[in-house]
Design a protein that fits this description.
alpha+beta, 5-stranded antiparallel beta sheet, 7-stranded mixed beta sheet, binds biotin
């Protein structure tokens, strides 16, 4: 652990207590001028650290950024975000970064997180609005031993984790999932997931599971105003992004491990309970054309079962769902 993080840990232990420079230098085995340099680094990272010539140092405010030290503080996971957290103030797309890392052998649980994305990607070649410091933009490297046909289930698991995280943090919020991956509050989208895989014919090599959550933003570009919202807009108050990321990682890991160990049935039931799509009349634009009917169920692979007006059943594997 870098020395600056060890200093942070000592300061965090009791924020009401001043710790002298001498004490820090003794505990960490570094000089007092080195302590001072690390304090300066921490301040540059957004930590508010009080300094008094007689009393020493005191942590008055943690950093507002989603720094690895903030995410990992008290994180209760085995692998997700535990070993490797790659942090960017700005990057093109965390999914692109995570794919590069995965192709280079990054282990399962490697987390890529950014304050802003200049080329945030959504499904179907769309872009994902990613202004600095307002949202959560993260991607996880996964290495499940599953066949490529099972990979869409990872999208469902990511959606469940995101929806349940929001429900737990904001009880009473009207959170639902629109098939396959839109997280809605009321009728507006607050989060989405983007799953990308690398595989051969019968085995997945890696999955990059990306999530974007609109947390504290209040303004959206004109084309999103009617369809997008944020947690802050919906609840009326800013939310602590680091707390949400930790809770998301913990839930996501639990759901994912349960899927690998027990199979998809429990996860599919949870998805159905959170669904805003099932039972509704819908219209889906699929690669085979537009289909209209009633969304009846999910199949075992996460495909959407749609019954058209002639009573014929179709399995939709990909597409955009709209009211029918
Ligand atoms: C969608 O609803 O279309 C999916 C949106 C996924 C956005 C996230 S933000 C973090 C990760 N990096 C990306 O470029 N996209 C995903």
């Amino acid at each position: 652990m870098p020395t600056s993080h060890r200093i942070l840990r000592l300061l965090r232990a009791d924020p009401d207590v001043w710790i002298s420079g001498e004490e820090l230098s003794r505990q960490l085995g570094v000089s007092r001028s080195a302590v001072w340099k690390h304090i300066r680094t921490l301040r540059q990272e957004g930590y508010d650290i009080g300094a008094s010539p007689r009393k020493g140092y005191r942590l008055t405010q943690v950093s507002p950024w989603l720094l690895p030290a903030e995410i990992q503080e008290g994180l209760r996971t085995q692998r997700f975000g535990k070993e490797e957290v790659v942090y960017f103030r700005e990057t093109d797309s965390t999914n692109t970064r995570a794919k590069d890392l995965a192709a280079g052998g990054a282990p399962e649980g490697t987390l890529v997180i950014a304050e802003a994305q200049t080329g945030g990607r959504g499904r179907k070649g769309r872009s994902w609005f990613s202004p600095p410091g307002e949202g959560i933009y993260l991607s996880m490297v996964l290495r499940p031993r599953i066949s490529p046909i099972e990979a869409p289930k990872i999208t469902l698991i990511a959606g469940i984790a995101a929806a349940e995280t929001l429900l737990e943090a904001f009880p009473g919020l009207d959170v639902h999932i629109k098939w396959p991956n839109d997280i809605l509050v009321g009728a507006k989208k607050v989060a989405g997931t983007l799953t990308e895989i690398a595989s051969d014919m019968d085995q997945v090599a890696y999955v990059v599971s990306g999530m974007g959550i609109n947390v504290n933003g209040r303004r959206f570009p004109a084309e999103l105003k009617e369809i997008a919202s944020s947690i802050c807009v919906e609840t009326g108050c800013p939310a602590d992004r680091a707390v949400l990321v930790r809770s998301l990682l913990e839930r996501y890991e639990k759901e994912y491990m349960s899927f690998l160990q027990k199979g998809p049935a429990p996860m599919l039931d949870r998805w159905k309970a959170l669904s805003r799509t099932l039972g509704k009349r819908i219209q889906v634009d699929t690669p085979q054309g537009r289909r209209t009917g009633t969304a009846r169920d999910l199949d075992r692979d996460g495909g959407l079962l749609l019954e058209d007006d002639q009573g014929r059943m179709f399995t939709i594997i990909s597409g955009d769902v709209n009211p029918g």
